[in-house]
Design goal:
The complex is a heterodimer of chains A (272) and B (228).
Chain A lengths: L1 H11 L10 H33 L3 H13 L2 H10 L6 H25 L3 H9 L4 H35 L8 H9 L3 H29 L1 H10 L16 H17 L1 H4 L9
Helix pairs in contact in A: 1-9, 2-5, 2-7, 3-5, 4-5, 5-7, 6-7, 7-9, 7-11, 8-9, 10-11
Chain B lengths: L7 H4 L5 H6 L1 H33 L3 H16 L2 H12 L3 H25 L3 H9 L4 H31 L11 H10 L3 H29 L1 H9 L1
Helix pairs in contact in B: 3-6, 3-8, 3-9, 4-6, 5-6, 6-8, 7-8, 8-10, 9-10
The chains are: A mainly alpha (272), B mainly alpha (228).
Chain lengths: 272, 228
């Protein structure tokens, strides 16, 4: 238990928290670059995935991009980037994070839209919705659980990849672990590991919570059981369509619950 | 980019045949270390996950707890996991192996459970009606029918392990990762690119081996495919 003691001592030493290589600065770097990368990933991958899912094309690409992402070591990509003219700076690190964040969002959002019950889309078309309206008001709401799942997996992957960036002298909390390994300073590397674990679990937990809160299917169910259609956003202006949409939504939701949703389609390559 | 004239080493080109020919032995031994580490990892993870999944599959709490734990481990970045293992296993090659096994376990347990769940209840019922005992049903009915799901897990675990193993270089046990790191410290482009490409090729190759193995182990799936 001497090592636990060492970790506690390291973490409670104020000197380790201050300064340009202190815990506070390292954490902010980690969170900031990860957040920037996640926003870029969502902006790039989500529209592409939803459109491919809507026109039901490109499935091979959308699904296999995850397998490719798993086979490529994050450490190798970061090292290759470090040796290019870009070097290792915020820009190249964000580029690597984006590359590894795209696959889970792309695959999950694609499958989410693709797997929407065709009868529901048919009904929407029968109501006179245009392709864009179908995508925005029917397919997107029904795909939300998987879309959010993809974003959660991407966030976890990005935070993990950000840690590896330290191995090529990138910024972030991984630096504390890397310095600990380099100097064989066990308390330091273990303290760094603890900090990274806390951050990773917070990110995972935060997004899992978000999934519960935002999920329109759950909200619709909650609405049913309490007072009317609080969550029936998709059909408020077209009241007659609402019950069938919600019913279909719950069917899709149940299917997802038992299948790919819990398993997490295209789980990340764990940190690479 | 004058690798055709042979001084691609001096020019520090990304692609350099001279590097491959002069350092062939080193590349091969790194590749071998990588393969060994991956094979050991996946074999140990399978040996642990099968009995574990079978033990917890009927217990709701044990099952939920194990899956929750698996998710938590999966969330921990590899570098941090190795860091957390150091006080237990030391700055030693065991740390890398244990860390990789833990990741593979999180994948395999899920897939073994999913595979066992996917066995239709009628099939088990029929086997029981034929007078099969629980052990025989498990070995001759349930596990064979769970094979596709287990193999899906083995493929993901293997490919992930090949990629993850690279950072084992921190403890001198990273196979091709050792070369990637060496290339980084010496600013040697050909070494980094060659080792990286070998890593991806190794992942693809091992994946193909598993696909072939599954093909051999599930003859009934082939028959069903032909019948359709």
């Amino acid at each position: 238990m001497s090592s636990l003691r060492g970790v506690v001592d390291w973490l409670t030493d104020g000197a380790h928290w201050r300064g340009s290589d202190g815990v506070v600065v390292r954490t902010l770097q980690h969170v900031e670059l990860s957040a920037v990368a996640l926003v870029i990933v969502v902006l790039v991958a989500l529209p592409v995935a939803m459109w491919l899912g809507h026109i039901k094309k490109g499935g091979f690409l959308a699904v296999n991009v995850t397998n490719v992402g798993r086979a490529v070591p994050t450490f190798a990509v970061l090292t290759l980037l470090a040796l290019t003219s870009l070097g290792i700076g915020n820009r190249s690190v964000v580029l690597a994070l984006v590359l590894f964040g795209i696959p889970p969002v792309l695959t999950n959002a694609y499958v989410g839209v693709r797997e929407v019950d065709p009868r529901v889309v048919e009904a929407a078309r029968g109501m006179g919705m245009t392709g864009m309206q179908q995508l925005r008001r029917v397919e997107l709401p029904l795909a939300v659980p998987l879309v959010l799942n993809g974003i959660r997996l991407a966030a976890v992957q990005i935070v993990a990849t950000m840690t590896i960036a330290a191995l090529v002298s990138g910024p972030g909390l991984g630096r504390i672990i890397q310095e600990g390994f380099a100097t064989q300073n066990e308390p330091e590397l273990e303290a760094g590991a603890v900090l990274v674990v806390v951050l990773a679990l917070l990110v995972e937990g935060g997004f899992a919570l978000l999934q519960r809160v935002v999920d329109p299917i759950r909200r619709a169910h909650r609405g049913d059981s309490s007072r009317g259609s609080r969550g029936g956003r998709s059909g408020r202006s077209r009241r007659p369509a609402e019950p069938s949409l919600v019913a279909a939504a719950s069917v899709v939701g149940a299917g997802l619950q038992n299948g790919n949703r819990e398993e997490g389609l295209g789980a990340p390559s764990t940190a690479g | 980019m004058n690798f055709r004239t042979g001084d691609c080493l001096e020019a520090n080109s990304w692609i350099c045949a001279k590097f491959i020919s002069t350092r062939k032995d080193e590349l091969l031994s790194a590749l071998q270390q990588h393969v060994t580490l991956t094979a050991e990892t996946v074999a140990i993870a399978l040996a642990i996950s099968l009995p574990l999944a079978i033990a917890v599959r009927r217990g709701r709490h044990a099952r939920g707890g194990l899956l929750g734990l698996a998710t938590a481990v999966y969330t921990v970045p590899s570098l941090a996991l190795f860091g957390l293992l150091v006080p237990i296993t030391g700055l030693h090659s065991t740390t890398v192996l244990v860390g990789l096994v833990l990741y593979s376990l999180t994948i395999l347990i899920r897939n073994v459970l999913a595979g066992l769940d996917s066995v239709p209840a009628e099939v088990v019922e029929a086997a029981r009606g034929m007078g099969m005992g629980r052990l025989r049903i498990l070995l001759q009915v349930e596990l064979p029918l769970a094979t596709p799901s287990i193999f899906a897990g083995l493929r993901v675990a293997t490919v992930s392990t090949v990629a993850l193993a690279t950072i084992g270089y921190l403890i001198g046990e990273g196979g091709l990762g050792n070369l990637i790191h060496e290339g980084l410290t010496n600013y040697f482009k050909a070494e980094v690119l060659t080792a990286s490409v070998l890593c991806v090729l190794l992942a693809i190759g091992l994946d193909a081996v598993l696909v072939g193995l599954q093909f051999l182990l599930t003859p009934w799936a082939r028959r069903a495919g032909r019948a359709q």
